[in-house]
Specification:
By secondary structure, the chain is an alpha+beta fold. Among the domains are: 29 residues; 120 residues, Glucose Permease (Domain IIA). It is built from 4 helices and 14 strands. Strands 3, 6, 7, 8, 9, 10, 11, 12, 13 and 14 form a 10-stranded antiparallel β-sheet that branches. The protein has a two-stranded antiparallel sheet with strand order 1-2. The protein is elongated, with a radius of gyration of 56 Å.
C-alpha cells in the first residue's frame, strides 16, 4: 500500500515538472517576440521616397513654390498684381475718391447737386376732376339717348291724357315709361351724365337721378345693387345698377325699369329721344 502511494506521488511530480517546463518555454518565446516588436517601432512605418524636382512644394524664403513653376514666374505675377492695384488707386484719386467711405459721400453729393436736372412729377388730380374734363355734359334736343334696358313698354308716357295702371286699377297720368325687364338685368346710363341723386321711395323703390347737361335729367327707378355714387361722372353705356323686383305699385305689371326724362324739371316723353 505504501509503495502505491509513493508511485502516485512520483507520477504527479513528473507531471508538474513537465507543465513548468512548457510554461518556461512559452514565456521565453513571448519575451523574444516583444523585443523584436520594439525594435521595429523605432523605425518609420512609412515608405521613404526621394523628392523629385518640381513634385513636392517647399517653402523657401517665405515664397510659395507651385508645382512646375519657378521663382521668376512667381515674381512676375506678383509684379503684375501690384501694378494693377496702383492703377486702380490712381483712378480713384482722380475721381476724388480715396476709399470706400468716400464713395457714398460722392454719390450723395451728386444726388444733391442743384445743377443736375430733376424730373418733375405732376400732382394727381381727383378722379371727379378728370372725369369732368373728359366728359362733356351737353345733351340737346337733337341728341339721342341709348336704351337703359331693352324691353317692351308696359306703361307709356302720358301727361296729356290718363292711362290705366293695372296694379292700382285706376287711370292717371304717367310722367315716365315703364319698360319691361328681368331681375338682375344691368341698367345702363342713357348718355354722358353726372350722378345727381341716389334715393328710394315707396312707389319706384331705389332710384338714381342723372344730370346730362342743358337742363336734361333722367330718373331710373326699380333698382338694386346700385354701383355709382353721387357726383360720379358716367359715360353713356356704363352700368348704374341692376333691375330689382317690382314694388307693390307695379306688382301686376311685373319686373320693370321706371325711366323718366325731364327737361328743366318738367317730364318729357323719353321715346322721342331714344335711338
Amino acid at each position: 500500500m505504501k509503495e502505491k502511494v509513493n508511485q502516485l506521488f512520483r507520477d504527479k511530480m513528473v507531471l508538474v515538472m513537465l507543465v513548468l517546463g512548457l510554461l518556461t518555454l512559452v514565456a521565453a518565446a513571448g519575451a523574444v517576440k516583444i523585443r523584436k516588436g520594439n525594435e521595429n517601432l523605432e523605425k518609420s512605418p512609412y515608405l521613404e521616397l526621394e523628392d523629385p524636382d518640381g513634385v513636392i512644394a517647399g517653402d523657401e524664403g517665405g515664397k510659395p513654390q507651385v508645382i512646375g513653376s519657378s521663382d521668376a514666374r512667381w515674381t512676375e505675377e506678383a509684379a503684375k498684381a501690384e501694378t494693377a492695384n496702383e492703377e486702380a488707386d490712381a483712378k480713384f484719386l482722380e475721381a476724388g475718391v480715396d476709399n470706400g467711405d468716400h464713395v457714398s459721400e460722392t454719390i450723395l453729393s451728386l444726388q444733391e447737386d442743384p445743377a443736375l436736372p430733376k424730373e418733375e412729377v405732376p400732382e394727381a388730380e381727383p378722379a371727379g376732376v378728370i372725369a369732368n374734363q373728359a366728359l362733356s355734359l351737353d345733351f340737346t334736343e337733337e341728341d339721342r339717348l341709348s336704351w337703359p334696358v331693352t324691353g317692351n313698354i308696359l306703361i307709356g308716357y302720358s301727361m296729356d291724357t290718363t292711362t290705366y295702371f293695372p296694379t292700382l286699377e285706376q287711370y292717371k297720368c304717367s310722367p315716365a315709361n315703364v319698360i319691361q325687364s328681368e331681375v338682375s338685368t344691368p341698367v345702363l346710363a342713357p348718355a354722358n351724365a353726372r350722378v345727381m341723386e341716389i334715393g328710394c321711395n315707396e312707389e319706384i323703390g331705389n332710384y338714381v337721378r342723372l344730370d346730362m347737361g342743358n337742363g336734361y335729367t333722367a330718373l331710373c327707378g326699380q333698382l338694386k345693387e346700385i354701383l355709382v355714387e353721387v357726383n360720379e361722372y358716367l359715360q353713356s353705356g356704363e352700368a348704374l345698377g341692376y333691375v330689382a323686383e317690382p314694388t307693390k305699385y307695379y306688382s301686376v305689371e311685373g319686373v320693370n325699369l321706371y325711366f323718366e326724362l325731364l327737361k328743366d324739371d318738367k317730364p318729357v316723353d323719353a321715346l322721342d329721344y331714344l335711338e
